[in-house]
Amino acid sequence: MVTTAIPNAAGSTAPEDAVEIELRQPVIAALLAWALPGLGHVYQGRTGKGLLFFVCVLGTFFYGLYLGGGKVVYAAVPWEQQYRWQYWCQLGVGLPSTPMLVQRRRVLNNQEPLLKGFMAPPKNGPSDWKDDSGNWTTQPNELAKWTVEHHPHFELGTVYTVVAGLLNVLVICDAAGGPLVISHQSDKKSKKKNKQQTDDTPA
Amino acid sequence: MISDLAIASVHAPFAPLLAVVSLWYAVPLIVSVSLVCAATRHEQMGPILNHAVRFGMWIIVFMAAVMGVLTLLEAMA
Predict the structure, then answer these.
(1) In chain A, which residues have their Cβ closer than 8 Å to the Cβ of B43?
(2) Tens of pLDDT along A74-86?
(3) Low-confidence spans in chain A with pLDDT less than 70
(4) Quick check: bond before A152 cis, omega within 30?
(5) Which residue among B1, B33, B39 places its CB closest to the CB of A52?
C-alpha cells in the first residue's frame, strides 16, 4: 500500500495540514486508469476525481468520434499515403479505442471488419462519393472520401480524440503518483535562501 | 441547391463572422483540458475548479494573442 501527501488547499506545506492520498497499488491503478479513464482513481477511493476524468476524457473522445462521423479512430495501415500517427495518441484512451487494433488485424488478414466497419481502417482503392449538389465523383481511396464527406469535422474529430488520449496520459500519471504539486515561487526562494545560509555556515 | 459557400460569397461582409463560428468547437476542448489539467494538480474539488477557471482563461488569452498576431501578419502581407 503506497500513500502520498500534498499541501492542503491553502498551500500549507506543514505535515499536519497535508492532504494524505492512498494510492494503493500504483501499477494496478495506472493500468485501470488506462483501461477506462477514471477507473484507477475509483479503485483508489478518489471517486470524485475519477468521475471527473471519466466524463471529461470519454466525453471529449466520443464527441470527437461523433464529429468525425465515427471514422476518425482507426489504426494505421500500410497502403495509406500518410502514416496515421494519431492512433498512437488515441490509444491513450484505453479500451474504448482498442477495437481499432482488432479491426486492423482483420483487414490485414483479408477478413471482413466487425460491427459494420466501426473503427476499421479505410479501404484501399477508388471510392465513389456523391456531393451536396448530387454530383458523383470518384475519390482515390476511402480516406479521401471520408475527408471530403466530413470536412472540416473529420480534422476536428481527429483533434478531439487525440487530445482525449493525451489527457488520459496525465490521468494515468495522477493515478500512479498522485497530483503533481507545483511549489510556489516564494517557497522555492525561501528554500534556496535556507540552503545558502546552511552552506555559508562554517562547519 | 445553393451551397453555404455561395451564400457566404453573396454576403461577403459576413464571411469572417461565419469563420468565427468554428471557434466554438474550441470551447468543449478548453473546458475538458483545463478541468483535467487542474485535477492532476490538486486533490480537492474547490482548488481544482479554481485552477481550471484560471487555466481556461489563460488558454483563451493565449489563443486570442496568437489570433491577434496572425491577423496582424495577414494585414501586413
Answers:
(1) 6, 19, 21, 46, 49, 178-179
(2) 999 988 888 999 9
(3) 9-13, 182-203
(4) yes
(5) B39
